[in-house]
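Supplementary material to the annual report.
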Amino acid sequence: MASRQPAGARPGAKFAQFKLVLLGESAVGKSSLVLRFVKDQFDDYRESTIGAAFLTQTISLDESTTVKFEIWDTAGQERYKSLAPMYYRNANCAVVVYDITQAASLDKAKAWVKELQRQANENIVIALAGNKLDLVTESPDKRAIPTADAEAYAREAGLLFFETSAKSSTNVRELFTAIAKKLPLDQAGPRNLRGAAPRPGVDLRPEAPGTQGAGACNC
Amino acid sequence: MDEIAPEYDVVVLGTGLTECVLSGVLSVKGNKVLHIDRNDHYGGEAASVNIETLFKKYRNVAPGEEPWKKYGRVNDWNIDLVPKLLMANGELTNILVSTDVTRYLEFKQIAGSYVQQGKGPKATVAKVPSDAGEALRSSLMGLFEKRRAKKFLEWVGEFKEEDPATHLGLNVGSCTMKEVYDKFGLEDNTRDFVGHSMALFPEDEYISKPGMAVEAINRIRLYVNSMARYGKSPYIYPLYGLGELPQGFARLSAIYGGTYMLNTDIDEVLYDDSGKVSGIKATMKDRDDQSDAMKFETKTKKIIADPSYFPGKVQVSGYLIKAICILKHPIDKTDGSDSLQLIIPQSQVGRKHDVYIAMVSSAHNVCPRGYYIAIVSTIAEKDANHHLELEPGFERLGEIEEKFMGPPIPIYEPLESGEKDNIFISKSYDATSHFETTTYDVRDMYRRAAGEELKVEGLREDQQLAQE
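Predicted assembly:
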């Protein structure tokens, strides 16, 4: 179902949309990673997340395959363990972020991976991102988590793994591309066709036509 | 753990729908909001729960027993605790669209809207006609009555409160709905289904109350317009259950800077010398480790809360009785509908208040395929044997796999407006079948708490996101 074409696409072209959620301790750079990926921007003095809660970005894997990410930021609701089940619902992929200069942040990341495995879809694609690589490039003694340790954990838990820098943009695109490649393009649920095809339910917008797509059938 | 801010503009207690809508709107308007719930989940009384939680809430499950096991995966169930649906053209839909919370949710139609005539074995169930044309085909009326009903519904469609030419010579400001019905010569049965299954009045008081005609007409218009929106029924429903609604508005609040703390008890509410609220003391519990609780104190100018946080500041206005029933079949005589509302008007079964049935199913991702969840509800009229009051509803359901029914649920309302202490308390979810009264309460509370009318149209365009 995910291989439906948007209007005007070339024959044979594949287009799929996936929900991606971000997780990780406060201040590890979740929003910065997304901002770099979506807008190619970085802000040194970015405060705790307000605003960037719903962004989309498209990746072309090859000439005929396009993947669109619908990216959900925690909007700070993770701070006091108050993320809603809605956040995990139908997430196809997740980026769990830690800060390579903060030893405890990898433990928090591991806890988030556990939470994902408990709450999210069974076949969710999870990537582990060790962020703030730029700080370590400047002064290597700031590193608190050896690459090998995180890599070993990621392998064991079946996660994609990258060390990234939202600031210098290192490995950001690579991270999202690797996720796109690992997603099952032919098995996406109806929700993932959002934007590419009529949504399964009704569209509430006043200008929307009355009945939409599958909403008309009794299935 | 991050520090809690020393002061908030508003502290909101409870994450029911009313509280979450207010929290979302206030955050968008630039207020600094702290939103707390003593439970470890969102939704309060308006939550949707899984089947294990439902068994544990309503039954004494013996240790070692797991009666929910035969119903498949626990998390495939999202069972509403409050039986309500959204009117497609109603105010909650308007708020959802204006605030863009629709981005986080998906909706589906409810497949049918039905009404019962008669009682016992002779009872018939029919589709509620949605417009003048359908009235002509309805099995609810005889030939001549159909024509009268068609005329009436056509007039309702043309009615304009500000245009006396559409008033048929009636003084609509003060007349009763009885005078309107009399004008069209409608029979009692027609008045019954128009008033109860279209205007959705739960009892008959509206008929003889002077000045109620305009409200009744507007309610019928809301029904007809909602029906016209998507076609099958006037109702829509969020996939995964009503519990998604408060979560969506909580997310809106968080995006605009609202701080969320579940699993947090209020230890004390602090007041200043003039008796106005000045702050709270609270404890955030740790899910896994009870010794790891975090105590904190913060100032606030206002508190918005559901009734359970201030038992001394509310009174009981009535009792709702309901039974959550799990079925393995659609309801008889409803065309195999996967979801519906069925109203049993009070007069048909010798009661003062209607009996409602709201049913959803796997079509709305609230249960595994092959199951149906029907909630039968009404307002309590007796002091005991409440299951007998719901009996007309159970009769419609046929074979019931499981029936979950607790004691009557008190419906609370605040004793005061909140002007004196700056504590604004919501009403409990009432017995109506939709969220229109909930949105009246949202508007009323906003007016009292913020000192202005709530205008949701264009709400988000007016505000700059702090970081964008």
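The radius of gyration of chain B is 23 Å.
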